[in-house]
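Hi everyone,

Forwarding the result from last night's run.
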Amino acid sequence: MSARTHGLGRVGIWAGDFDRLAAADVRAAAAAIEDLGYGTLWFPETTGREAMAQAAILLAATPRITVAAGMTDIYARDPVTAASAQRTLDEAFPGRFLLGLWESHPSLAEDIRGHRFDPPPATMRSYLDALDTAPFGPPGTAASPHRVLAALDPGMLALAAERAWGATVLGMPVEYTRNARTVLGDDGLLAVTQLCVLTDHRADTADLARTTAAAALPNRRALLRGLGYGTPDALGERLVDALVAHGGAEDIARRVQEHLDAGADHVSLHLVTAAPEVPPVRQWGQLAVHLPG
């Protein structure tokens, strides 16, 4: 295992649909993910549970697995509060909590939270400055190094290399993993999240894969165009396949290995199903048999 993984393991699960579940079901699903041998349990923060409270639920439900709040919205809490919460979780669950900071989205920051959405790299840098000097937390604790930045554009990737363990990249093709490794350099942690749809018959996944790819497009059009995908709005088969690994467990495992070969240290799987309100425990188990250790 690369030293850059910081204990994340090679493969994890991105629990993008946990906010649809009752708390008891979230705890049971987290325990199942750990029992299946995945290294890290990732989750986002959008309009569901508050990220630090969700992390505490997951950490308390599991004895070993790393829990990563992969998209903690910097507009959801001031940096002093974020630092205090992170230090609290570090104290209670030593070495098991990873903070992933996300620059949010204009509609979430302004329309829902009532803030002004400012240029992301400069805003994130200021947030990190305040996070590092925050005065609050449990007695004897200090600023935690356990953090990554959710990053797509090169400017945020460069900031991640400078001010964090590295970056987490959600829903991009393997070509982008190669580019991100170049920006992060040899030392930065690169954790990527692969969108995937699992079935025994690849033809059965086409519609759900296409819908999943379409949902991922709005924040990625310019980047995909730069990777040679022409007009991303066309959503041709090549682009859908690049964004969403779909087919059998072997097909998805092959995509994981491609990301690792392209420079990723860790790959988390966001398994999309036709019933997102039901944890796909059986499918996680099918995948676990075929994934790199």
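The chain has a mean pLDDT of 93.

Cheers,
N.
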